[in-house]
Predict the structure of LacI family transcriptional regulator.
Amino acid sequence: MANLKQLAQSLGLSITTVSRALDGYADVSATTRERVREAADKVGYRPNASARRLRKQRAELVAVTLPSDPGHIGPPHFLDMLSGCAEHLAAAGLNLVIAPVPRGESELDICRRFVDGRRVDAMLLVRTKRKDERVEFLQSRGIPFVTNGRTESLAPHPYIDGDGFAGFRAATLRFHAAGHRRIGHIAGPQEYYFAHDRCRGWRAAMEECGLATDLCAEGAPLEQGGYLAALELLRQPSRPTALVCATDEMAIGALRALREVDGGNQISIVGHDDLPMGAFTSPPLSTMRMTGEHLGASFASLLLRAIAGETAEELQELHAIEFVDRDSHRRPLRAA
Amino acid sequence: MANLKQLAQSLGLSITTVSRALDGYADVSATTRERVREAADKVGYRPNASARRLRKQRAELVAVTLPSDPGHIGPPHFLDMLSGCAEHLAAAGLNLVIAPVPRGESELDICRRFVDGRRVDAMLLVRTKRKDERVEFLQSRGIPFVTNGRTESLAPHPYIDGDGFAGFRAATLRFHAAGHRRIGHIAGPQEYYFAHDRCRGWRAAMEECGLATDLCAEGAPLEQGGYLAALELLRQPSRPTALVCATDEMAIGALRALREVDGGNQISIVGHDDLPMGAFTSPPLSTMRMTGEHLGASFASLLLRAIAGETAEELQELHAIEFVDRDSHRRPLRAA
DNA sequence: AACATTCTCCAAAACGTTTTGGGAGTCAAG
DNA sequence: CTTGACTCCCAAAACGTTTTGGAGAATGTT
């Protein structure tokens, strides 16, 4: 409530001593320290953040920009991750905030505002694009950051990502092993690294199996996008018998297309992200997800190490993808 | 990039003049102003946010705490709302950030940290409880805030809310008019104002129609909670023929319970929130939503007026609820 | 010529904290 | 008695900005 000067005055001490007492320095006697702490507690003293930042030349703040663009980030996991991350950053004296992007501005604008106004010590980026201007900007400013998702940037940067290529290749091969030959892919916007990566995984598997890669449709990473893309694939003269979808949301949209076209029990389908919703669709949605227990902690750790100056190459984590089998991936395969 | 001092030096002007030139004061000549602006642009000067805040005694920041608790806030609308709000606040020179709650801390802790550290000028609160300690705290500190959702706080405070009571009453009466007599309610945790309000609406309608109000089950405001609550109601000797659900997520969980128990086409159901996902369930979910076009703008406006010192009573908006009819609310009604 | 007015500009203070570089006082050893 | 070490405290500077209260020059007015 009060400020340091008032607190000092009321105690008959100097500002310096009060400040150092609260910070636990050894050059203030134990009795004084205790006296100061009690008084501070009593009046609920909290240092003024701006003054502290100005003096320490550190914002004690980390920001993550919230993509507002087309598809929303899988909120449940995303938010869990951020809570965990915030917890570990807090232990290092850093606060985490999410910056929504005002309509009419870009994520890059936000980065600029936060970085050039020295409002943050580091940044977190999610939903990277293959060519990501935010990454380029942060690299040009030399501010520490970690991305959730890789990019095709020439200069390496710290990231955590799932191995979408391997995951989607494995999922496709599994369909092949189950006898499927017409395996379609519902792809996300290819400018996103994750969408491109997953598409490449499907394509690689199809080519390994000597299958054509024409059963691919792209859409927005939302239910509606998946719905439209699925309708497009179902319109083909030779329909797919299985669908590998870039995201769960798209898979849920596709599920509706399947229900409309063939009653929904003919075609196998798998998504990615393990949205809680997937357990409640009809049929329950089989999916994949990134392995790794405490993702938030990993992000925090990478970020702290980036701030400490470790090089980007040491700060890259690629996690394997695991299957979450429910029902949608094993619809009975009927003769063509 | 640079400093005001450095910028002034490079121009042969005083710090004062440069500062005032950039702020567009009239007491610096047009030519100097232009010269300063060009130089500032060239070196990419941005004022140091901490210094500015310290001097102006305003944080130029508004924070909203992100409930991590049990149920997640309907992300699509929530995020849209925040983008719109951020846009309008930005026009007033205010930044908006979302503060996730670190594991191990409470939303109240976050409020405390932001408010007592003078990090924010105002706050936004979502998912209010009937007795909400965040509201009490902010009131005790006298800091401007607006909530999304009412509370039972004795002192009035600014809010925007949907009229859940009227909405759920209307939905229940509609089922009654369609011939339903056993209308169940799947309720959210009653400590939340919205959940209690909606439950009261259902109860009021049932009592008006002279029907018993025992077909009510409470659960977490998530798919799983709705699923379990629905199973509970379906276990009753005399099953409901229609279900009014506190949220869409709960309704989607209930939908799965219906599918498991009776194939899913016997019981009518309606949710609330108009989640995009609802258009893709089976059957497509009928739902309700708060009316009002530019919710973000409303929030921003209320917040700015609260900061300007208008009294709480003038800053309360209660919005009507409208139906979003899809299929789930008109399952054929079969004789008991 | 004397005075008021307007136009530009600036030195200095202030915001609240942390940190630097000592300054008293006490005590024990030389 | 002097010296050095140690303990406890503090004055002042610094962080980078905005704002206050003029100063000096040019212009207009009597």
User: Anything to note?
Assistant: The two ends of chain B are 75 Å apart (CA to CA). Residues 89 and 147 of chain B are 16 Å apart (CA to CA). Chain B has a mean pLDDT of 94.
